[in-house]
Batch of 2 targets.
Target 1
Amino acid sequence: MGADVQISILLEKLNKLKEVVQERFIYPRLRNHVHDAINELQRIRKELEEAGDTSTLLRSVYSSDDTSTLLRSVYSAELLIETFLLNTSIHCRRDDLKNLTKNPPLMAFLPIPPWTQLRFSSKLKNFVKSLKAVHSEPRPRRDHSAINHKTHEFEDDDDELVGFGDVAEKNLVDRLINDDEKSLRVISLVSEKAVGKTALARKVYNRLDVRQSFECRVWLHVPKNIKCKDLLIVLLKQIPMGVLKGVEFMSEGELSALLFQTLMELRFLIVLDDVSSFDVWLMLACPFADAANGSRVILTTRDSKIATDVDPWSRPPLELEPFTDELSWELFSNKFRVGRHDTDTHHQLNSNKVKILKICSGLPPAIVLLGRLLSTIQPNELACVIDRLLIDLDKLDQSPLSNIIALCFRELRSELKLCFLYVALFPKEYEISVRRLMQLWIAEGFVKMSSTQQPEDIAGKYLKELVHRNMIEIATRKEDGRHKTCRLPSFLHDFFFQKSEDIGFIHSHHCRANCTPIDSPAQLSTDSPADQPNTDSSAQNNIDSPAQPNNVCLSDVCFKAQTRGTSNEKINELLKTIIDRRRSRGFVLTKVLDLEGAHRPLLHAKLGKFLSNLRYISLRWTGIDSCPKSIGDLPCLETLDLKYTNITNLSSSIWKAKNLRHLLMNEVSILKPSSSKQSSTSMSNIQTLTGLRIGFEDPKEYGLNRFTSLQKLGLTCHSRSSVEKTWDCISQLNKLQNFKLRSRDHQFGQPSELVIPDNLTTHPSLSKLYLFGVFNFKVGNLPKNLKTLTLSMSKIKEDPMPELGECLPQLNILRLFADSFVGEKMNCLGGGFPKLRVLKLWMLETLKEWIVEEGAMPELEELEIRGCEKLEKSLGLERLSHLKELTLTNMKREFVEDVKQNLASVGRSHILLTNKFKSSTTLACKSSHHLLLLFFFFFFF
């Protein structure tokens, strides 16, 4: 795995170098050495593919010494090429400034000095020699060709990673909601093998009847060696409470008392996933209150003794066994069916049924992975793949699941391998923002560039294919159904994390009491919560050269732990070390600086000068107050994320970042560019610009009308004139899909007048619109193809629902937030909103009556009514035939009871009705003394 992945990375960089050489350099031997290196690496990669990249990878083709030497050569060459390309970029910029009037003609064609080219050419020549030395004689090959894959668009799969039979799922559900026992009980799922304990627990956890049965549900993956205080904080932060501030500063006893008091008021379901020590349960035995209301705990573990000891009074643990042949084949067929319906293929599968069942050994993860893998392979290759897996199963001393995992990884395209391994960088069971992950892939250079497609679109296809193959699972979705967060399945994280570290693809440094943040002045180390989730932490994708005494950090990614914030000392030491390396060597290769969630890191004033190779910077949720002015000097910067910080002003130097494509902020003012020419030339590639406060200015002063690539835009204006001129700019942005406009008073931040022009209706691409401000509502002025509409503080007096339902036939999501409507009666007419799926009515304080006529909103699935305190009557909710979830938050109890009765009268028990009220107590504000008294009272008496 190591050599194959690293060779793919290096080939990408050599191809970039090849373009530079052909365009700018005249030294012929340099061109020749680049071509030789590419050819040699392609030859080695082909031999690796022919040998097979399962557990026998490199054992059958290369000796262990060969492997080590090969990796050292590849790492060293990657460092060499990355440095050379960076220097090329720097010298080219200097050459642009000097121009031909200050340079001899020869130097104009050679941005890099000739002697530098000569030295680089010599080193590249030595690299080619080292490749030939590693492997020069013929090696045994597979007796069949590489597997060919079908090319097709992958469907967006909603099914679970693992599907279980009725028996195990029914037993678990019965113990949760059909058991007459009212006392708190622990239900343990136990198996030493990877049979899908977590998947079964998650499937039941998300069932509609289970969600309806518990007021509070909490899911917690339990890392090894987690501290009791951290565990309590994580649990508390997932429980709905009135006020929860300062828990990080409470003692362990105070936290236990607070958790006890909170759970006493709720019927809860808590899942403790992957418990490896009985001590974890001892931490929670006291604070898990038993209110005799049917609360339950699900615990998954590989240790049968833990499963038995946690609750000796309960029924025996549920011991999960491998699937029977019948159930295995049913699951395999279900996963294989996508995109494959021809008779010949199914005949081949049926003829190999016995072999497939033997390979999978009844393990659901193995069945799922193999089913999806075989569904992508050409029919004439199926028998060959199955036979090879069967041979590996008989010869190799490892589990069937390991063989299948290795094969699934080997059959990925090289770029997908890199993207997949990068996900292993994140902690186990960590929910990764899809937005963040795809931007990181792009910044790292894993996404192949295309002249016809945006990098984000290509990255989205990569993710979709990995999801289809069940190698990444979707954790949550947005309201419109798009992917929001994802994660690496636990069994895959266990397999790949250590292997990724072994080959040097990633390097993590765990925070422990006996560890220093910097292992040595020459080596960069970062923190990861994989083992210790008690701090904000970082990990890095570290392409290090074992042959070099000093490691080179190409990426630093910080994970915000769910527990408590700590000092930024470690982050600051890391950044200081990077800057020091820049001063001593003249360059730093860091591409990614993702400090999301780190606590107020200190950024050097000359960050733009010292880290000129940065492509991605995220300071989201860091709480910092300012950003260095030099950040606009970064020539490669593509993404700058400043959301959820305290930054209110950003230097105008940001307009100089010529490659910037995504700038995300919250109400930030930026000085206008020094000239319109500067903004038009430097920001022509920008696709996302959110949170820009233009105040009283004309947006054309920023050159906004010339940002023709914009797809997502968010602005705040302080005057009617500024709003009107903004709309004029918007009409010229033909690619704009998502627009958010706030009109508010400069002094007090109150909503001010917002005018909507008539020409907005013909906008060709605008599909999402968010408006904050007071305006005279005219639906006829809105784009006809709107799919999402959000209104806030609009002060609309006339009922907007009849016009909205008729004039916006494509609307999927409608959100009416605080004071968007100030009337007393709202009526949804029959036939209105034919495609509406999500409706949210928040804090409409004057609304008293809402009527849903027959045939209105026929596709509505999710409805939330929050803080409409005067709403007394709602007629026709029972007519919403497709309604799945109804959430009532801070509503009158009489209204809630009336809704329940109406739904029950028409047999609508399948609707998930969630009723949330403000907590009657502000628990976190109680004195610690009072909390402890409560705890001891309930526990001992």
Target 2
Amino acid sequence: MPSSINIGTRDIPLKFARRLTEIVNAEWDSKAFLNKVSPVTQDLLRYWFSDTFCQQRKYNFHQGQKQAILNTIYAHEVLKSSSVFEMYSLIDKDILAELGLKELTNEKYNYPKYAIKMATGTGKTWVMHALLIWQYLNAKYEDNQTGRYSKNFLLVAPGLIVYERLLDAYLGKVNEIGVRDFETSDFVKYKELFIPDSYRDILYSFIQNNVVKKEEIGKKVTGDGMIAICNWHVLAGEDEDEIYNDSEIEEPSAILKDLLPITPGTTAGHSLDVLDNNFLRGQELEFLTNLKDIVVINDEAHHIHEVKIAGEIMEVEWQKSLNVIASTKGQRFIQIDFSATPYNVTGSGQRRTKHYFPHIVVDFDLKTAIQNGLVKTIVLDKRKEIASQKMAELDYKAVREGSKVVGLSDGQKIMLRAGLQKLKILEEQFVEFTKDKAGVSNKYPKMLVICEDTKVSPFVVDYLINYLGLEEDDVIQIDSDKKGQVKASEWEVIKQKLFNIDSHPKPKVIVSVLMLREGFDVNNICVIVPLRSSEAPILLEQIIGRGLRLMWRESEYEEIKRENRIKLLQKKEEPSNYLDILSIIEHPRFMEFYNELVNEGLVGETTEIPDSKESVLGDLIRVGLKENYQEYDLYFPIIVQDSEEIIVTKKLDIDDFSPYTLYPLDTLKRFVTQKGDIFYSEEITVKTRFGNYEVSADVFNSKSYNEYISKIIKAISSSIEKVGQRKTKRFPFMQINVAELASIIDRYIRKKLFGQDFNPFEDNNWRVLLLNNTGIVEHIINELSKAIYEMQNNVEVTEAIVLKKYFSEVPELKMRENYSIPVTKCIYERLPFPTHNGGFEKDFIIFCDADSEVDSFIKINEVYHNFVYLNYIRKDGLIASYYPDFIVKIGDQIYLIETKAEKDIDNENVLSKEKAALSWIKKINSLKPEDRMHCTWNYVLLGEKTYYTMKQNGASLKEILEFAKLTRYAIERTLDAYLEDMEDRRL
């Protein structure tokens, strides 16, 4: 039975989210899901999640994003839930009973409302984009009488940084001339992920024309819906003069404040600022309230929660505003909340309890994100320097005299020294390892210091610069007010440094209070020093969230990072490297919070700062070209344009056509005596004729003349098609430009056909063109057909254009030292082999290098040698890319080699790759010798069993490759027959 006592939600909403996920996944796997949604939704879900499309894209939604999208759509479109209570009752009545009815009686749960819990750094913005696209396209193309979809959207950000990020995502970044470039928006950059081709233009038009900034709400006129973007201050009625606005001119109210610091009447609530603010807020709310439907999307929605004051539950101001907006819409108000921390907290110490928002529909937690490598692995740095002193003897709050801050405590200084020491070691090795030829790196680690308040941050900056040796431009200080906001005059300067901080070596350290709690979505935060003493879980989780985004995203580092996660989280060992590890300097006041993370398997611990001589990169090394690399260099020929016969076209000209000479025009006209057709009447029984009347020639109008010409064109096309069917031709039947041909026929008739000007609409002339037995029509067709056929035979043979991509154009490889071996007959000092089941390739590399017949060879690395690929048709019929394993040169023979375990030799996709490779080899060997290194190219699918058996019998590498090639001869013969058959069919 439902509980009659309100004891809070606790973790019951997470249980509900798990149950919903089970149901959704079962229906998705059984294909039942797609049968229950609209055709538009079917299109989107197939495009976003089916393997057919996913395998063709560079970017895809990860499992957490996919689950959030599916769960939300299922709850809204399949369940058609009209409230949070109904959503629970449709999924699991037992969980509803456990939660209790009282939790769901609040008016703010009495409409479709969904909360998406996703760990910070796991891409909730992409989910937001997908759901907006889903709502808009359904509202536009499906029957929307039910009110389940809307074209109106209100995106609510928690502060300036998230607000700016949303504008960047929808409108694009501001360029050097101060204009937002839509080409840099998420919807253009990731168009292959978000938008199917058939919907792309309509969505681009909607987004570009209908985004409304916060100061434009209620003022900007939009034609087909709206995407209003604001921060919560607009809804809360806060004074926005103190925060960033898009205008470079100070607001009049701010100027009044400077001129009149003491404003009469403020105690009575009659200040101009208050009245003006209330008026403007009223305009925005009135406009949003009067809309017939809307989807509200709250980014970082933990801000929209209840607070308890004097024992009474109170709604925050911006939630009250949402209630007002919803009050006029019923089920046409839809709310989607996003947060990594969607909960309130009651109690403290052991009695502290998290109460999760009841409308959570998906829980993609931090632990799962870390285990899947979607965010950094968290490490607590527990320094011996700290452990050697009694914690109680150290103060971790700033030193104060009364309320005035006069300096940093010893505990704070220890934490700053530890953090900076770690940063310097990371910086030295990360930057050096990733420098390019010009000495520029793309990996600049940063440290984030979270201070107690704005009075402390100047002392932190002073200590870092004057005592720890940093330069002034190494540190950026971001002071904010109690809401975490920055004044407009300071914001423009700050954001330029802040938003591009990953790309530049300086600043190295960011010092802040609350400003960077949300939306500070940079990748290179590697060290966090939390000097705040607050124990609030939400604040702590938000602080950690600032450093979670991945820094080392390249696929070449995935394996070494995965090994690190196993060492830290499963084996409880020190990390072997610090790639994508977030180090948090231990603060004793946070021990309870840290212990929870450790117990949940979310973090590892380190007790030693790595020595500056130790590698924080693990066994990663950089391998460059040898001094004599030219002796072993190979190139991969890329056919930019095949050798082909090209029709050299010229424009048809009436001077190329002969006039009609069988009968003079005057003679032809005598055959036509009437000015129009004569009709008469005849009685049907005795055939009495009477009442002749003439039908004017006007019935032959421009439409009739056009039809006459179109029939001639059709006859010409038929004639040429028959000519083009001759097998002697090696090119397809030529396409005809119908518009151009119609024009030339008209000019020919009017100017050349009869050796004089001819107007078909004058003096009944048109009838001449229709006279039988005169050969006029046949003459026109023959002249045009002959000219076109001669054009088709005007052929030039072009040679193939070949791009020679030398492997030495990739001057350096990054690899793991423990999984690579030194080589001689290669352009690189070492070559890598796979860490998993890489024994065959390792042995092959050693054997190649030792064989005296081998001139040179290369192990193809698809990350670096991304130009060495062939296209093949997969089992499911789609085109995919394929990277062979090796290229080996032996004398005048070059072998493109794929090494395979014996069990995979006859795999359907492997055979398809083989056919594609043989077809490519045939093209290469038809090139001029200088375009294929004066060698004959071969493709070899080399089985492990064949390799080891022949090697043990003393065979050379060439003998092994030729034998393997011979055993695959049937495949090559089949391919040749197939190609010949296709050629015959084409001809």
